[in-house]
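Researcher: Next entry in the queue.
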Amino acid sequence: MAEEGAILAPTCEEMAQDLKHERERMGRSIEQLQAAHSMLGSIIHAGETITGGRRA
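Model: Structure for this entry, 56 residues:
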């Protein structure tokens, strides 16, 4: 990595490709977490509808 002002930049193509792959992996993880978060929200909402918002 080379520091150019306040920005770090990869110094070789291999490093740049590794960084791109890691960003893609992270993006997939974020998408999976968002889907799980949404599903949990739906489950919680359905439970609150059934129980009238009472806690177990």
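Model: The first strand starts at residue 2 and ends at 4.
Researcher: Noted, moving on.
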